[in-house]
Write a structure and sequence with these properties.
Layout: E1 2-5, E2 15-16, E3 20-21, E4 27-29, H1 37-45, E5 50-54, H2 74-88, H3 96-105, H4 116-132, H5 151-168, H6 173-184, H7 195-198, H8 207-214, H9 216-224, H10 232-240, H11 264-268, H12 275-290, H13 301-311, H14 318-325, E6 336-339, E7 348-353, E8 363-368, E9 374-382, E10 390-392
Antiparallel strand pairs: 1-5, 2-5, 3-4, 6-7, 6-10, 7-8, 8-9
Helix pairs in contact: 3-9, 4-6, 5-6, 5-12, 6-10, 6-12, 9-10, 10-12, 12-13, 13-14
Amino acid sequence: MRRLRLDRPVSPGATLARDIIGPAGEVLARAGHPVSARTFEVLQGRGVMWCYVDDRWGEGIAATPLDGGGATVRPLLRDFSRQIGILVAPLLNLSTNRALETLRGARPTAPLARSQVYDDFPAKARVFIEDCAHAEALAGYLVDRAAGGDLDGHAIGVAAVTSRLAALVGMDAREQLQAVCAALLHDIGMVFVPRSVLAIPHAQRSIPERIRYEAHTVLGEAMLQPLAGPSLHLSIVAAEHHEAVDGTGYPRKREGGNRLLRAAEEKRDVERITLMSEVVAVADTYERIVSPSAGHEGVSPAAARALMEDLAGHTLNREVVQRFLASFPELPLGTEVRVTAGPHLGMTGIVSAVQAEGAEPPAVRLFLDAAGRPLEQPIEVRAQALKTLVEITDQPAPHAVTPGRNRRVRSVQ
């Protein structure tokens, strides 16, 4: 099974390997459906950019997504979002300041603290973390969001990456659970952002539209604060996941750090970004880079690496990013590549095998000739045996794609 962008070819007889979920969480196509040009055309018309396929070229490749489809938490997240949407519905047409005043004063979301759906969060999140632990890291951190506009799918993808990243940076089981719950709800303030605004690429939004979008952080914080006590991290992460370590983020331009270990005085400094927020921010950024959104098609994990490195140190915590990128190969399993020189010049293939420790070069299965025609029989080679370099087929130009955190790069929000 491999993750495939819908404008790329598949071998004859290919079928969908996983259900495809649409922007509203609906099932657009079932696993096992035969793949054809018409199938891809219809799916693209519904905003789908990626899918998982079983085909001859990807045979033997286990490029599975982290979250297992999010079946454990998607219904829970949908119910929570529906309930909180009902509670704040009278406020949706108010200005941000008036809505904040009401959220902080009247606390309309307080009943959620006594709801069954809120009580179910920890247990379901624990199962979700266990599900995410089974995905193969050699394929990179794959997510299952196929279309832009799937807010629940985005939250699930961020939580899935957070589940692995929290362990990588040394969080204990309790902190991992807190981080995953916070990741699932980090964008709950989006209920105040009109769908028409979300459908506009970030760089094309007007100033009022950008202000309304950025307000989802403080609105989310105010919505989750009544659930405080042991769940205080929920509101903190909702507020801070768009802050930047150099102080250029929003909403409060708080500064962070580029280390994992914090001195005691740093931990007590409420004006600095918390480590949990920095971990979720890395997961949020990565998920937005590899997934489609308005004006952005999404890229492979291999292509996302350079973009994450570009943000490390000034937008994202450098050590968190380094720990994250060190945990999967530069050319993950399933990466589509093109040969740039040598006897196989111009041929296209897929990384079909990688070693966990990188002791051997990755194996590449070439399936298209230099003219883009399918080979009668795929050719298996080791990258080293090519005696040259390969390039990632969806490698973006420098500074081409990041999530709108910094004016030096273009947005994918």
